[in-house]
Design goal:
This protein has a single domain, classed as Immunoglobulin-like (Sandwich). The chain contains one helix and 13 strands, in the order H-E-E-E-E-E-E-E-E-E-E-E-E-E. The strands form two sheets. Strands 2, 3, 4, 5, 6, 7, 8, 9, 10, 11 and 12 form an eleven-stranded mixed sheet that branches. It is mainly β.
Length: about 160
């Protein structure tokens, strides 16, 4: 079971890496206190697919902060993950938080830091949006409506 889940997660992330080459304009901006969320998106899933990635840019106009958790009613669990090369192998692992520097920004993108939606309750369909709650250590909760792009589509840069 764990091997099947790992294989599925790797396939989703692999699709994310390939899909980043194609773009679709999904720009949504959410600003709360000092935190600004831009270009948030996820991708459509197929029936039976239990995982999906979530991507966005987080800007911080205030004091240093950390993204400490995320949740969504579409998934049983949402984890914060990173992908990194270890030798010649790309590895994905859960991280405790993501630092968001004062006056800076961090990008959650394919092949790097990202949200991982686990135990998806129903397929995510292109064109819909999903609610995601991001919890920051200082800024508190930030609600994001995350567009679902077609498989193979990424976010368009402005």
């Amino acid at each position: 079971m764990k091997k099947k889940l790992l294989a599925t997660m790797c396939a989703v992330v692999g699709m994310s890496l390939v899909g980043a080459a194609w773009a679709q304009n999904v720009s949504k901006t959410v600003t709360t206190n000092a935190i600004k969320i831009e270009d948030a998106y996820t991708r459509a899933t197929v029936p039976g697919q239990q995982v999906a990635g979530g991507f966005m840019k987080i800007e911080n106009k205030g004091a240093a902060d950390q993204l400490i958790s995320a949740s969504s009613p579409v998934a049983g669990e949402v984890q914060i993950h990173e992908m990194a090369m270890e030798g010649n192998v790309m590895k994905m692992r859960q991280v405790k938080d993501i630092a968001v520097p004062a006056g800076g920004a961090v990008e959650l993108k394919p092949g790097g830091l990202h949200l991982m939606f686990l135990n998806i309750k129903a397929p995510l369909a292109a064109g819909e949006t999903i609610p995601v709650k991001l919890r920051f250590a200082k800024a508190g909760d930030v609600e994001v409506k995350m567009p679902v792009n077609a498989m193979g589509a990424g976010a368009m840069k402005h």
